Amino acid sequence: MTVALRGLSTVVPPTVLVQPEVRDVFAAQPGLNRLGQRIIQTSFDVSGISTRHTVLDELSWDAHPDDPVFFDIESGELLLPGTKARNELYAEHATGLYVEAGRAAVAATPGLEAADVTHVITVSCTGFYAPGPDFMIARELGLDEGVQRYHLGFMGCYASIPALRMAAQLCEADASAVVLVVSVELCTLHLRSSNDPDTIVASSLFADGAGAGIVTAREPEPGERAFALDRFATRITPTGEGDMAWKIGDHGFEMVLSNAVPAIIDEHITGALEPLFAHDDSLAEALATDASGEAVEHWAIHPGGRSILDKVEVRLALSEAQLVPARETLRDYGNMSSATVLFVMRRILDGSAAPGDRVAAMAFGPGLTVESALLTVMG
C-alpha cells in the first residue's frame, strides 16, 4: 500500500511587504540604540528575502485605518498591542486561510470530494481559539459530521512534517482514510520593535502563509502529480534547547533565535538524517561518504534563514540547484514557520522533478528538533 500526499496547495494573504521598506520602518523606530539599528540593517539586508505577505493590511502604505493597531502610518511608529489583541486578529484572519487552503487541496485532488474526508489535522504555532480551525474547516467545507479532528499546536517551524507523519499513520491503520492536513501561520501578528537581537532577526524573517494537502492510500489519477510518503524520522540535537524557542509574552509571542542555530544545524544535520536513511543501504552509504546530493535528487529544506540554507548546502554537499526551491521560497515569501516546507515541496513538484525522483524534506524547530521525511515523486 502506498500512502501519498496529493492536492498540495499553498495560499498567502494579499498584503505584500517589501523587505527594504519594512527595514526602513523598523530602523526609524524611536528608542533604538545604535547597535539595534546596525543589527536591523544587517539582518534585513542579508536575509535573502525580497517580499513577504501579511494579514495586516494596515502595514500597507495604501491603508490608513482611523484606529491603527500595529502601525500608525502618519507618525511611522510601530505600535505595541497586547497578546489578547494579537490573538483576536489571529482568530479573525486565520479561519479564512484555513478554509481557503483546505478547499484548494480538495479541489486539486482528482476523484475526491469534501465528503470523502475522514480526518482533519490542523497545524499552527501563532495563535489559539476554540472551537478551533479544525472545527471551522469541517463546518465551512461541509465535511461529514463524524469527521475526526486533530490540532498540532505550538510546535514551531517543523510541525507540518509530524502532521504528515500522523496522517500517513492514520492511512496505514485504515486504508480507507482520507486525511486533510492544513497549516496556517500568521507570524507577522507578533512583530514588534526592539533592541533585542533575537526579536530583530525574527522581524526580518517571519511572514504569513498557509499550506494544505490530502494524505490517502487511494490511487492517484493517471498523470496526477503527487508525493509517495516513504518514511519519516525525528531527532533532537544534544545541544540547542535554549537557542530556538517560542514563548508567550505580554505583547505577543516571543521568538528566541540565537545566532548559534546555523552552527548547531551544521554540526548535527548528518546525524539527524541517519535514521531517515538507515533502511536503505545506498542512502546510508551516500550520507557517510558526503554524496547525499547524488543519491537524493531534490531537497525540500525549511528555509529558516539564509545562513541555515548555506550550512545545509555545504554540510550535505548539495548543488546550488538543489537548494533553489528553498531559496526561492525564502526570497518570495519569507519564513512562514510550519507552512514553509509545504511551499518548498510544492515548488519541487511544480518544477522539473520526474516520476521516481526522491525528495528529502527537512524542517527545524524548538528543542532543537529536526524533523525529516523521504518522499518519491509520483505522476
The beta-strand count equals 15
Succession of helices and strands: EEHHEEEHEHEHEHEEEEHHHEHHHEE
Put simply, the count of helices is 12
Q: Using the CA coordinates, give the radius of gyration.
A: 20 Å
Domain Chalcone/stilbene synthase C-terminal: 234-376
Family: Belongs to the thiolase-like superfamily. Chalcone/stilbene synthases family.
Protein name: Type III polyketide synthase
Pfam families: Chal_sti_synt_C, Chal_sti_synt_N
Task: Describe the secondary structure blueprint for this structure.
Elements: E1 4-11, E2 15-18, H1 19-27, H2 34-45, E3 51-54, E4 71-72, E5 77-78, H3 83-107, E6 119-124, H4 133-140, E7 148-153, H5 160-173, E8 178-186, H6 197-205, E9 208-216, E10 226-236, E11 244-249, E12 252-257, H7 261-277, H8 281-288, H9 292-295, E13 298-301, H10 306-315, H11 324-333, H12 340-350, E14 358-365, E15 369-378
Parallel strand pairs: 6-7, 6-8, 13-14
Antiparallel strand pairs: 1-9, 1-10, 2-3, 4-5, 8-9, 10-15, 11-12, 14-15
Could you explain the architecture of this structure?
This is Type III polyketide synthase. It comes from Agromyces lapidis. Belongs to the thiolase-like superfamily. Chalcone/stilbene synthases family. Residues 8-217 form the Chalcone/stilbene synthase N-terminal domain. There is one protein chain. The chain has helices spanning 19-27, 34-45, 83-107, 133-140, 160-173, 197-205, 261-277, 281-288, 292-295, 306-315, 324-333, 340-350; strands at residues 4-11, 15-18, 51-54, 71-72, 77-78, 119-124, 148-153, 178-186, 208-216, 226-236, 244-249, 252-257, 298-301, 358-365, 369-378. The strands form four sheets. It has a nine-stranded mixed beta sheet, sandwiched between helices. A hairpin with a 3-residue loop joins strand 14 and strand 15. The chain is built from twelve helices and 15 strands. It has 379 residues and is of the alpha+beta class.
